[in-house]
Predict the structure.
Amino acid sequence: MRTPRPRERSFARLARLATAVLCASFAFPGAQEEGGLTLDGIAFVRCPGGTFAMGSNGGAPDESPEHPVQIRGFYMARHEVTFGQYDRFCEETGRAKTSAGGLIHGDWAKMGDAEIDLEGGWPRGDRPAINVSWHDAEAFCAWLSGKTGRTVRLPTEAEWEYACRGGASSRETWAVDLVAWHSGNANYQTHAVMSKAPNALGLYDMLGNVWEWCGDWYDPDDYSRSDGRDPRGPAEGRLRAVRGGSWVNEPRFCTATNRRGCDPAYKGGGLGFRVVVSPEASPGAARAAAHGR
Ligand SMILES: [Ca+2]
């Protein structure tokens, strides 16, 4: 892992302080409540249940209508699954490790003047795992569930957005810049998790760094059919939902409400995942319920 330069460390400290002040005005149910969970070395933040306005009437068509949604409490991983965590999963299961190279399409190598080692790959360690399909992410969840006896799964879109809004509900570019690595500040690569400021829940990199797989099928029209009670997406579909934008994207795509669908077999340099745990669920039950299986 590359050691952060002094100026980067100073900026990270300044960003955390600034966000702590800024986020004080963003009310979130139970944001100050304590409690967390650590499973096999992976730290989870408690996200208390509550109601929020999901979506946006001023964004892309698939973000509307904005509608009230009630969420049960859950635990969300403090940061994106890192290569360190993912590689351990691969080693323990005999699974082939995924490339750390960020090349998505050939054209990405031509972006800017940055020196990017696209062929050899970026550092692993505490960089977010990339080049992982939805199926890979599900396998990781199954592995961690089996090891810990808890139901570890991908978040629903509603859980992801609810957690993201814990501290980063503003769409202002200045706010995104404090919490997210995006195309304007990431120098065309991923960065170590937790090197930007956290949101009010203590979650890092919800916006930017890498897109994050959700458990739901993606349907651009499903908000109009939501009953607002812990929605879990369509029963079937072709694409899986991804959230949050990445180092590849402009800040306008790194928002709490932006949605995208992605082939579950796709693997790319801008797409990773994080996991959640349902505290009230028995192993296997919530996983099946959350994803309609
Ligand atoms: Ca992210």
Summary: Confidence is low (pLDDT under 50) at residues 6-33, 104-115, 167-172, 281-290.
